């Protein structure tokens, strides 16, 4: 059997890649060390997360368009390289502008481009379990926050410093996404590789003309704003309220694990409710 056509291996690689993208939610781990190193205020560092959010959104939108042109393998590879490069370049931070440009813009955009690929590919291999598979992929994104954000990143910062942590994480992102990306190929039918419209029954332009699509956009935006406000500042907020740094760092894995389990459960619930 061709390994690149094994849907279970495709799913495993999608989960691994999605977990790597979980670094998005771990910004609050880097806040205190950066503020201590450069004397920046919370207001100044908060803009970094704002840039990540904006450019991740742009990356996800353009990543979907790019994937239609060059396919998922190249799209995930480009996104992973940009994400890793953004983190690596952030290790040379000496000013807020540099941090915004590297961690916020480059890494944020790369993350958005790469993040759209795993779930898009995995769903095409498991059309009978869309809710469960989407729940699994996004659950691993949350678990990546637990492993990379609340475990690996603080360990690297404590053992070395925040700049070394950026370099190591950047290298990990590039290597992992480049390997995983090689498995992101669409399943083939008798007529060849499946096209998006053939799978979903509607094109992107047709979708954007429906009221339902915009209702979902507003609904998703409302939920994401609340969730990201919490995860992006949870450690810093706890410390500002008198909680020690070691205690504050516990909040992130708890949030990440609850986040991941909730996504998996509601993905399964979707399939059960729809008879999938």
Overall pLDDT confidence = 83
- In DSSP terms (H or I, runs of 4 or more residues), the helix count works out at 12
- The Rg value, from CA coordinates, equals 19 Å
Oligomer: single chain
Find the count of extended strands (DSSP E, 2+ residues): 2
Q: In what order do the strands lie side by side in the largest sheet?
A: 1-2
> Roughly what fraction of the amino acids lie in strands?
under 5%
Termini separation comes to 27 Å
Structural class: mainly alpha
Estimated helix fraction: over 70%
Low-confidence segments, given as residue ranges, are none
Q: How would you sum up the major sheet?
A: 2 strands, antiparallel
Envelope shape? globular
In N-to-C order, the SSE pattern is HHHHHHHEEHHHHH
Question: How are the SSEs placed, and which strands pair?
Answer:
Blueprint: H1 7-21, H2 27-38, H3 42-70, H4 72-90, H5 96-125, H6 130-159, H7 162-181, E1 188-189, E2 192-193, H8 196-200, H9 204-207, H10 211-231, H11 234-240, H12 245-274
Antiparallel strand pairs: 1-2
Helix pairs in contact: 1-5, 1-6, 1-7, 2-3, 2-6, 3-4, 3-5, 4-5, 4-7, 5-6, 6-7, 6-12, 11-12
Report on the structure:
With 276 residues, the protein is mainly alpha-helical. The chain has helices at residues 7-21, 27-38, 42-70, 72-90, 96-125, 130-159, 162-181, 196-200, 204-207, 211-231, 234-240, 245-274, and strands spanning 188-189, 192-193. It has a two-stranded antiparallel ribbon with strand order 1-2. A hairpin with a 2-residue loop joins β1 and β2 (192-193). The longest helix has 30 residues, at 96-125. The radius of gyration is 19 Å and the shape is globular. The mean pLDDT is 83.
């Amino acid at each position: 059997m061709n390994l690149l056509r094994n849907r279970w291996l495709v799913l495993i690689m999608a989960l691994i890649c999605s977990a790597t993208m979980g670094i998005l939610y771990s910004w609050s781990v880097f806040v205190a060390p950066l503020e201590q190193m450069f004397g920046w205020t919370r207001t100044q560092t908060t803009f970094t997360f704002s840039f990540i959010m904006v450019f991740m959104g742009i990356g996800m939108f353009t990543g979907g368009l790019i994937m239609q042109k060059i396919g998922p393998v190249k799209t995930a590879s480009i996104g992973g390289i940009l994400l890793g490069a953004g983190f690596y370049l952030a290790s040379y931070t000496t000013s807020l502008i540099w941090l915004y440009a590297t961690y916020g813009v480059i890494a944020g955009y790369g993350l958005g481009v790469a993040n759209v690929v795993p779930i898009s590919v995995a769903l095409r291999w498991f059309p009978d379990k869309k809710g469960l598979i989407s729940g699994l992929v996004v659950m691993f994104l949350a678990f990546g926050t637990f492993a990379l954000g609340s475990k690996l990143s603080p360990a690297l910062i404590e053992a070395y410093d925040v700049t070394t942590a950026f370099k190591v994480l950047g290298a990990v992102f590039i290597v992992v996404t480049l390997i995983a990306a090689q498995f992101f190929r669409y399943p083939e039918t008798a007529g060849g590789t499946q096209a998006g419209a053939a799978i979903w029954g509607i094109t992107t332009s047709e979708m954007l003309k429906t009221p339902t699509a915009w209702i979902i956009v507003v609904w998703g935006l409302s939920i994401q704003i609340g969730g990201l406000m919490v995860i992006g500042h949870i450690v810093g907020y706890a410390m500002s309220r008198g909680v020690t740094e070691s205690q504050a760092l516990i909040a992130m894995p708890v949030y990440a694990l609850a986040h991941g389990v909730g996504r998996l459960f509601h993905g399964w619930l979707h399939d059960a409710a729809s008879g999938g």
